[in-house]
């Protein structure tokens, strides 16, 4: 549980999802002491928020794809901050 919020922000979507799945698995087994349960829950919430942020950014990038006259992808519109 030494992973900090900054460390979580450095994870890719796939890495964060894998870590979140591990947290959920531990919580579902129910064999975690209360103090560790709280830490796992906090970590899971941070991982979930990070995944949601990355997913939203990806969705926004997809929405920015432009179509040509034939309806085919013709390029992208630059997105602020990317």
Can you tell me the CATH topology?
Helix Hairpins
Which regions contain 5 or more consecutive residues with pLDDT less than 50?
Answer: none
Q: Give the SSE string.
A: HHHEE
What structural class do you assign from the helix and strand content? mainly alpha
Which strands sit side by side, in order, in the main sheet? Answer: 1-2
Q: Kindly give the count of domains.
A: 1
> What's the overall geometry?
elongated
Gap from first CA to last CA: 31 Å
Relative strand content: 5-15%
Can you count the beta strands?
Answer: 2
Average of pLDDT: 85
Q: Using the CA coordinates, give the radius of gyration.
A: 18 Å
Q: Given this structure, which CATH class is correct?
A: Mainly Alpha
* Count of DSSP-assigned helices: 3
CATH architecture: Orthogonal Bundle
Could you give a short account of the major beta sheet?
Answer: 2 strands, antiparallel
Helical content stands at 55-70%
């Amino acid at each position: 549980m030494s992973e900090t919020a900054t460390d979580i922000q450095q994870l890719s979507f796939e890495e964060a999802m894998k870590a979140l799945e591990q947290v959920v698995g531990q919580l579902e087994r129910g064999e975690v002491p209360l103090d560790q349960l709280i830490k796992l829950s906090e970590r899971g919430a941070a991982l979930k928020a990070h995944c949601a942020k990355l997913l939203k950014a990806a969705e926004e990038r997809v929405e920015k794809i432009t179509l040509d006259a034939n309806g085919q992808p013709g390029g992208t519109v630059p997105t602020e901050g990317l």
